[in-house]
């Protein structure tokens, strides 16, 4: 079985002329998703900046896409089950 995961889209904004621009940041927290099914390893890295709705001045046009990815939803559900914010979890 081959799992296909959709790609995380960049933080993009549209200006008044409908031009699309990509915003980048140097340092951001991230979440790492890794699951093993049989002999297959699926890995995905989530930069928290790309998951934000806005950056106080601009709206991320890819917010809904990025936050509705199946592996992002799984991470969110696991965090709820463990009742510990992701940033506070220690490496095992």
Can you describe what's shown?
With 92 residues, the chain is an alpha+beta fold. It has one domain (11-88). It is built from 2 helices and 4 strands; from the N terminus they run ββββαα. It has helices at residues 63-67, 70-82; strands at 11-14, 20-23, 30-37, 40-47. The strands form 2 sheets. A two-stranded antiparallel ribbon has the order 1-2. The protein is elongated and about 50 Å long.
- DSSP strand count: 4
Inertia-based shape = elongated
Summing up helix and strand content along with how strands pair, one would put the structural category as alpha+beta
Q: Note the total helix count.
A: 2
What are the segments in which pLDDT stays under 50 over at least 5 consecutive residues?
Answer: none
Radius of gyration: 15 Å
Q: What strand order characterises the main sheet?
A: 1-2
Determine the mean pLDDT: 82
Distance between the termini: 28 Å
Instruction: Write down the secondary-structure element order.
Output: EEEEHH
Could you name the key traits of this structure?
about 90 residues; alpha+beta; two-stranded antiparallel ribbon; about 25% strand; elongated
Provide a brief overview of the structure.
The chain contains 2 helices and 4 strands. By secondary structure, it is α+β, with helices and mostly antiparallel strands.
What is the topology?
Elements: E1 11-14, E2 20-23, E3 30-37, E4 40-47, H1 63-67, H2 70-82
